[in-house]
Design brief:
The complex is a heterodimer. Chain A is of the alpha/beta class. Chain A has nine helices and ten strands. Chain B folds into two domains: 281 residues, ABC transporter involved in vitamin B12 uptake, BtuC (Orthogonal Bundle); 66 residues, no CATH class. A two-stranded antiparallel ribbon of chain B has the order 1-2. Classes of the chains: A alpha/beta, B mainly alpha.
């Protein structure tokens, strides 16, 4: 289900942290309605690549194109404005707040009328919109007013994904969305990723779990030592091929990966 | 939008909590306030049993006057606790602000309004200063405000000068804590409170219905309105049978209601809870964490100053011990006893009022029983310890249940 025109295109991006070459002319694309699995060993540059796209790091060299146009992403706001949303591994939810408050955190809807002067929250409108958002994603949460801290890991992940969709992004980056989840919860999250694809978004999934990647991804991109070391159509390849690309079998010695560090 | 058909709708809103859910919330501290109301009832019953003047209209009116200053200071403390921080300077700030007001009014002949305004401003500026040092340099709030405690106590002595004590005689200032309203005004106040509360609750309900969020039935809302009406009517009746509704109590209630609104219903309040719950998440969501912190410490300083002004008005003087002794600890203990967590992110402004009532009742009752200061301190300390243990247990329970 690959599309011919890439929505987001990373072209020869390099990033150095002191002596560590975290990204070394990495190439990467994702199209609309496509799920791309981004895999690689620890320190292969996966997280650096995601943070570069998300505007947390700016690349030393190379180009980022969005919708065919070259763009400059230097701050997280730039990425958000383009329509790139990122869900980090630690989710960044406030456990003491309910589902609605977390989804709208930092983007609260305030009421009109005289109460607007106090920045009064429009709770009913937020709850309504959050309810729509979650039901469109077929996410089941016991109550919109449940504290997020009481939810299961899978539900928390789904809330975090739902929150990233509030600005109607075109590309969603998910960093280890299934780490630390049980089997049924992992299934929920993978189904959610499938629904993002159905809605025409480009989805980038970083994961250590190749089984999950094969289950959901259309295309698999392997990073190794900061370089794009392989690209596979998920249906046309096997885990052995991908693992070989990750470890660089037949090539360099494997210990070097760890030394490259700076994930 | 695809994928909606066939899938279960996301949220059965307004789910009624089951009995076991209620028990869980009780244990984990979400219903801490109910626990405290029960505790307050027990305390009142014990003191009434020991001395039947305790629940007399006169003594209850005195109790209201006694808790005003601490309650006002506690309101600011609640916001600081919601951030998961602490402000140890509020006692000293309240004393300093009162001294500034007294000196400007009595020695320099400023109008009472300007003197009060200047005193409040002193509290605000101190709060901004401490909040800035805390957030810009990352110095723990404990240390910043401990330094503040010493420094502002010194400033209090400096401002008071050689006399060490200033008597207040301006009727505008002494009137703050010594004005009582007629029965008619008292009842008018009761009507306003009940109508306003019912209006707000029903407006919220209508807004939910307008957005298609039904499920919340009208019965619990009616019960809440009836409860507020009952408490208001009983309180006004009791106060009217003595000297009348005191202005000081109205000031306290106005701040409690106003800042409860800020905490619960405004974007600022939401951000305060967010920073207290997970500062990193708040930062990534684009919330100006440092701005929130400075604003909260400014609020704490402001409320401390207002509390200090009320305390001075009641005492009719400012002296070297103004804002000293146990005032600070009681102001922090009150909200914690009433269910605001020391760990941040959980609590409510009205716990300042409830906590002040509990602590004030204990102090007042022990005074009636003519117990020594030694006993009073030990009992109050014991109650605080108990409250903090309950808070810690509630937190452990939440963590055991997978909630942080």
């Amino acid at each position: 289900m690959t599309t011919s025109t890439a929505l987001l295109e990373i072209d020869g991006v390099s990033k150095k942290f002191g002596p560590v070459q975290a990204l070394d002319r990495a190439d990467f694309t994702v199209g609309a309605g496509e799920v791309v699995g981004l895999v690689g060993d620890n320190g292969a540059g996966k997280s650096t690549l995601v943070k570069t796209i998300a505007g947390i790091h700016s690349p030393d060299t190379g180009a980022i194109r969005f919708g065919g146009e070259q763009v400059s992403i230097t701050r997280p706001q730039d990425a958000t404005a383009l329509g790139i949303a990122t869900v980090y591994q630690d989710l960044a939810l406030c456990d003491n707040l309910d589902v609605v408050a977390n989804i709208f955190l930092g983007q609260e809807v305030v009421t009109g009328g005289p109460a607007r002067a106090t920045r009064q929250l429009d709770e009913a409108k937020m709850e309504h919109r959050a309810g729509d958002l979650l039901s469109n994603l077929a996410v089941t949460i016991p109550s919109m007013r449940t504290e997020v801290g009481t939810l299961s890991g899978g539900q928390r992940q789904q809330v975090a994904v739902a929150r990233s969709l509030l600005g109607e992004p075109k590309v969603v980056l998910l960093d280890e969305p299934t780490a630390a989840l049980g089997v049924p919860q992992t299934k929920q999250v993978l189904e959610l990723i499938g629904r993002l694809r159905e809605r025409g978004m480009g989805v980038v999934v970083i994961s250590h779990n190749l089984a999950n990647i094969f289950e959901i991804a259309d295309r698999i991109v392997v990073l190794r030592l900061g370089r794009t070391a392989g690209e596979f159509q998920a249906e046309a390849t096997t885990e052995e091929h991908v693992v070989a690309a990750i470890t660089g079998v037949g090539g360099n010695d494997e210990k070097k990966d760890e030394e490259e560090g700076a994930g | 939008m695809s994928a909606a058909e066939g899938a279960a709708p996301a949220a059965p809103e307004g789910e009624t909590s089951t009995a076991s859910e209620t028990v869980r919330r009780f244990v984990q501290g979400d219903l801490a306030s109910l626990r405290v109301v029960l505790g307050l009832a027990v305390i009142w019953a014990i003191f009434q049993f020991e001395n039947d003047r305790f629940l007399s209209a006169e003594n209850l009116t005195n109790l209201m006057l006694q808790i005003t200053a601490v309650g006002l200071i506690s309101i600011g403390i609640v916001f600081v606790l919601l951030l998961g921080e602490i402000d140890l300077s509020v006692g000293a700030v309240s004393g300093l602000a009162a001294a500034v007001m007294a000196v400007l009014n009595v020695k320099h002949g400023w109008s009472p309004y300007l003197a009060i305004l200047a005193a409040i401003l002193v509290g605000t500026v101190i709060g901004v200063l401490q909040g800035s040092v805390f957030s810009r340099f990352g110095v723990p709030s404990f240390v910043v405000t401990l330094a503040g405690l010493l420094a502002w106590q010194g400033a209090l002595l400096q401002v008071l000068g050689s006399t060490g004590s200033i008597n207040l005689n301006d009727p505008k200032i002494t009137g703050l804590a010594n004005t009582f309203y007629s029965d008619t005004v008292g009842w008018a106040f009761a009507v306003v409170v009940i109508v306003a509360y019912a209006g707000i609750v029903l407006a919220g309900y209508r807004s939910r219905v307008a957005h298609g969020l039904t499920g919340e039935s009208l019965t619990p809302l009616a019960i809440r309105i009836a409860l507020v009406a009952l408490i208001t009517i009983v309180a006004v009746a009791v106060l009217n049978s003595d000297r009348g509704v005191p202005l000081a109590l109205l000031i306290l209630l106005a701040f409690v209601v106003g800042l409860e609104y800020v905490a619960r219903r405004t974007r600022f309040g939401r951000h305060v809870y967010a920073v207290g719950g997970n500062a990193e998440a708040a930062r990534r969501a684009g919330i100006g964490v440092n701005k929130i912190r400075i604003a909260v410490f400014a609020l704490a300083g402001t409320m401390a100053a207002i509390g200090g002004i009320l305390a001075a008005s009641r005492l009719l003087a400012v002296n070297q011990s103004s804002g000293g002794s146990e005032l600070l600890l009681l102001a922090i203990a009150g909200p914690v006893i009433a269910g605001t967590s020391l760990f941040g992110g959980r609590g409510a402004v009205w716990t300042a009022l409830l906590g002040a009532l509990v602590i004030g009742s204990i102090a007042n009752g022990m005074d009636l029983l003519a117990l020594s200061s030694a006993v009073k301190f030990m009992v109050t300390g014991g109650v605080l310890l108990l409250a903090v243990i309950v808070d810690a247990i509630a937190r452990q329970q939440r963590q055991a249940a997978g909630r942080v």
